[in-house]
Design brief:
- By secondary structure, the chain is an alpha/beta fold.
- 35% of the residues lie in helices and 13% in strands.
- The longest helix is centred in the N-terminal third of the chain and has 19 residues.
- The chain is globular and about 55 Å long.
- The N and C termini lie far apart (43 Å).
Length: 334
Amino acid sequence: MKIIVDDKIPYIHEKLALLASDVVYLRGAAITADDVKDADSLIVRTRTLCNEQLLSGSKVQFIATATIGFDHIDTAYLKQAGIAWTNCPGCNSGSVSQYVECSLLQMKEHLGLNLQHSTIGIVGCGHVGSKVKDVAERLGMKVLVCDPLLNHSGFVSFDVIEHECDVITFHVPLTHEGPYATYHLADEKFFHCLTRVPYIINTSRGEVVDNDALLLALQEGRVRDAVIDVWEGEPKLNEALLQRVFIGTPHIAGYSADGKVNADNMVIEALCRHFCLPHPGLIVPPELPSSFQDTGSPLDYYNPMVDSQQLKNEPSKFENLRNNYPLRREKLHN
């Protein structure tokens, strides 16, 4: 069996070598139709567009994306072509909630955000949003949740989020059609409807927030400040917006070693299930160096200001910063 793998997926090499005789690692954005024509399976991230142009005429029968999101996969074409696929729902939810928690703590320290007297609006309460809800409650914030797809009796409308929140954070998939499409969910109209002057956090997909409209809202004082991990057009991005936001990072909110290992294990399990292969055993994340000290603060484990400063210093290195991300572990809460 031949498997083509995005070469920036870590920790998975040893297990795949036990499952397939031919495993080829390539840069995700550079994978071509010639590369996959004789492959049985692909393991990708968001940078590989899995569509007819890539897959037509190939032997590929199974695709796994080691990500929660799958807007880079043409699911309609895969269904038509008889190609099975899977994503990794919830794999990095702990990592993203860590990113949001540490960002909120930095907003408290540097921007004077009073967490105990603030209301946070969580837009989208799936795997990630539900963990962000737990984080916000642990920090003493009042929490409002909007997710019309879940239709929970305790949730609120998007209008309430616009009018009553001091912080608004987005945790939705990117969709372009239907009554709850999320493309430019936060657009110029949204920013004009804000009653308070909130902080905006986006760790979902760049296109969920209209980046030009956000920059204008920041310049006009309709948004107090922002934490942005995902960008329209990435790896190219609006550099004026990057320099204006409090924290701007290169799509790494979900990049803890724990999240990556979760995705690896989900991919391996799905691969074994599809091809009826014996499971090679679970992957475990690497240990932190012995010099690491836990003082009790989540910021011991992760400080998003470091990632932000690196990107602001060299925006052109967006992909390099993503692809060579250092070891980061999640803090476990008892």
